[in-house]
Structures are given as structure tokens and as C-alpha cells.
Amino acid sequence: MSDNGSGSRQGRNAAEWVTLTVSIVVLATFIGAALYEQFALTEPSGVILRVELQLDQAVRRGDRFYVPFEVTNTGGDPASDVAVRFEVRRTEEVIEESDMVVPFLPSDGVEAGEAVLMSDPAQFEVTAEVGNFLAP
């Protein structure tokens, strides 16, 4: 009498071991990616805004000076109607100011623009500040 298929198998063949190993690696990769995303990539809640002037890239066009800038939201929530105020100062005196509004800034978003000034940014101190905004 032959014992084909009626008894339990003694071991696993190479294909079964490879399949098991690949399955464990894929499962561990998914679990690792989920944990990394949960703990390492979590953005802080709320809106965190900053504005950065690029004074070294200012350009004169006609009688105006165009100063590039970027408004960045590093927070986890979006913002709308972000107010940005630019000031040109001579020592403590404000000699020019300009306001603009960024209509929408998503979480982890950047919006670029140009401030248009009458005064030469190379001769005066130019600052920019983020003001009020709405939470959409």
C-alpha cells in the first residue's frame, strides 16, 4: 500500500519558504510605512505662517521696485485671506507701507509674489509680516 496524500507532510518546499518570506517582508513594509507616517510626518495642527523677502532679487522696472517674496504655511490647517504687510523704514521711521492678501494657502503650501515699492530696497530696511487670516 502506498501512502500518497493520506498522511501529513513533513516539510515545506523552497517555493513555500520564498512565498512566506516575501509576504512577511511586504507586511512589515506596510506596517513600517504606516507607523512612520503617523509619527514622523505629522504636521502641527493649526496655521503656522511666515513670509520671506528675497531682497537680493529685487528688480527696478520704471520708477518702481519689485521685491519677490514667499508666504509659507507649515501648519496642518489651511488659511485664507492671509494679510501681508510690507514696510520700508529709514531707521525708525516708516516711509512706505504696502499691504496684500493671499487668497488661499493650503497646509504645507507656499505662495510666491512680488511686493511693488516706490523706495529702493538697497537703500532702506524692508520688512514683511504676516497679519490676520481666516480659517476656511
Fill in the keyword field for this structure.
136 residues, alpha+beta, Immunoglobulin-like, 4-stranded antiparallel sheet, 1 helix
Task: Report on this structure.
The chain has 136 residues and is of the alpha+beta class. The chain has 2 domains: 10-42; 49-130, Immunoglobulins (Immunoglobulin-like). Helix content is 19%, strand content 43%. The chain has 1 helix and 7 strands. Strands 1, 2, 3 and 6 form a 4-stranded antiparallel beta sheet that branches. Strand 4 (79-90) and strand 5 (93-105) form a beta hairpin. The longest helix is centred in the N-terminal third of the chain and has 26 residues, at 14-39.
Describe how the helices and strands are arranged.
Elements: H1 14-39, E1 49-53, E2 59-61, E3 64-73, E4 79-90, E5 93-105, E6 109-117, E7 125-130
Antiparallel strand pairs: 1-3, 2-3, 3-6, 4-5, 4-7
